[in-house]
Structure formats: C-alpha cells, structure tokens
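Box 3.1 A note on notation
Throughout this textbook, protein chains are presented in two layers. The first layer is the amino acid sequence; the second is a token string describing backbone geometry. Keep the layers aligned when reading.
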Amino acid sequence: MYKTLIIDDEKAVHIVITALGKWREYDIESPISEYNGMDGLKTMRELHPDIVFVDMQMPVMGGVDFLNKASVEFPKAKFIVVSGYDDFSYAQIAIKNGAVDYLLKPIVENDLNNALGKAVSILNRENNIIPKKVLEDVNLPPREVIYAIKDYIEKHYNSEIKISMFTEKYFFSKEYLSKYFKKEFGYGIYEYALKLRMERAKELLSDPTLQIKDISERLGYSNNNYFSKAFKNYYNISPTEFRS
C-alpha cells in the first residue's frame, strides 16, 4: 500500500482530506499528519511517503521552501499542493517542482480523489504495477493536457462542454486546468468554447439561405431564443440585426 503525508497548519484540513479520500479504493494507507514544512521534511526522511499534500502558507517552513527541498531529496514522491490562495504563482511553483495537482481550499471531494487517482496511476506505472482500472491519458504533462483540451473544444464546440469532463479524464483539478488554459490561450475553457461558437455563428449568418433556427441547431443550442440571446450578449446585436 502507498503511504500519504499531509502537511498543513490547519487541523481542519487534515480532518477533511482524511474523511474524503478514497484510501482503500486507491490502495493507500491512512494519512500521516504534520503541521509545518520542517517537521514534514523530517517525517519524509523517516517514513518515505509516496504521496504528500502540502500547504503553501505555513509557519516555520512554508510550502515553497518545503517543495524546493523535498522535490530534490525525494524525486519519486508525488506532491499535491493545497492552498487557500487563488494565486497562479503558487501553481507555477507546483509545476516547477513536479507536483501532480493543485487544490484550492475548501477541499472538494471530487477534486481530491482526482488528484489521488492521478498520483496513484503515476506511481503504479513507475513501479510496474497493473492498476485496477485503466486511466486514460492521466500521465500527460500539464501543457500537453491543455492543448488536448483546446483541440477537443475546437472539434466539439457545438456540443455541451463541461470542465468535469477533463478533470475526470486527466486527473487535474478544475482550478488548475482553468488557470493553466487561460494563461496559455488568454481565454477560460468556457470562454474559448463560446468564442468559437459565436465566430462560427457569424459565418453561418452571412449565408442568407440558412434560417436562424437551423444555425441555432447546428451550433448546439436547444432553441432559437437561447441562441439569439447568447449572440446578442456576445456582440451586442441580435442575429437578425447582424444579418440585416
């Protein structure tokens, strides 16, 4: 079984992670707890945990210093950063130090277990352990993941797109994927899908032989009124006015 260490100065975080994690399902022992980076580093040297949750803001030794030291000393450990701050600089530090995911407080059960699943999948592959179920594409680097998401959106922008589709497939949290995608492309995931829809709508509206109802259906809208409202909100002009 894999060992897990939680390093966070908030006892409530330890309680939540311990309660929500699917430890048996992923063949992981109950988590060990430490409350600052220095003690966490000492415990890592003694127990060699496979998966480490680490908070970024802690007394004595914070998450940044801890990751800089621990990622070098324990290159095979899988780090999951936990933070109460919606700050992409922390995510960049996490990526630089090879963290498998970045979770925002309060911890969400689905995001937590997605992160655990990704860490376990990587550990299984590195240790030549056949996993209980095949997890598609979970070992892709973050940059490849967001380009795969971009490619998917460009091919399926006229269908319903949910970030949960990508979190479940690639085992990254929605916050991590959303921030990384926007940093790389300048748009959020939903914003990019809407942009493609609206640009295509303008192209289709330029063809006078197409009815607005048919355009609405082609772009995946459930009814003509919803499409017209979305178009007007985006361009400040209705489809009929644009066509005129």
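DSSP finds twelve helices and five strands in the chain. The CA atoms of residues 111 and 173 lie 5 Å apart.
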